[in-house]
Amino acid sequence: MFEEVSLGAPQHAPGFVMWRVVHRYQRAMDAALRDLDLTHLQFVTLALVAWLGREGGAGTQADIARMGDIHPMQVSLMLKALQAKGMVHRQTAKGAGPAKQVHVTAAGLKALRGAMPRAIDVQRTLFGPAGLPGGELLRMLNAIDAEA
After folding, report:
1. Which range is most confident: 5-9, 47-51, 93-97, 127-131?
2. C-alpha 99 chain-centroid distance
3. Do you know which SUPFAM superfamilies this protein is assigned to (predicted)?
4. Is residue 125 part of a domain?
5. Of 16, 77, 94, 145, which sits 20 to 30 A from 103 (CA to CA)?
6. 58 phi and psi angles, rounded to 5 deg
């Protein structure tokens, strides 16, 4: 039975190869961000908060989870960690029930300014020209993401 459904080798399975690449990327990001006291997921969460907060706005935990396709409980844990580091501030949103608006603090912006060039370097190193805006890898990943 296995022989009938096998792709012949793990490297012929896109899911397996993607699994390996994603984990290599996460390890490289964690290493690049370590001395900034950020994990990859904390960086992503902080960047999403900043993106949602551009032009003076603010997002909620649910907005962050939706935008990043991250489980809400994981977002909650990341926000608690970032708040403990003084990188985000959460306050109850007016008229939004228990929802809290999340804002990046000055310390969070400083961390992002240090982290963003490192994240870009990791992406350039790992993905090369194919991962740049307009590159084939990014185009294909965006197409797959749009189908989800």
Report:
1. 47-51
2. 22
3. Winged helix' DNA-binding domain
4. no
5. 145
6. -150, 150
Q: Does 10 reside within a domain?
A: yes
Question: Cα angle at 85 between 83 and 87, to 5 degrees?
Answer: 60
Domain membership of residue 106 as a residue range: 2-117
Report, as an integer, the average pLDDT of 102-108. Answer: 96
CATH code (residue 110): 1.10.10.10
Instruction: Report H helices in the chain.
Output: 2-5, 14-33, 40-52, 61-68, 72-84, 106-127, 136-147
Q: Is residue 147 part of a domain?
A: no
Decide if 127 is inside a domain: no
Q: What is the rounded CA–CA span in Å between residue 118 and residue 124?
A: 10
Neighbours of 28 (CB within 10 A): 18
**pLDDT of res. 51:** 95
Span 91-111, average pLDDT: 86
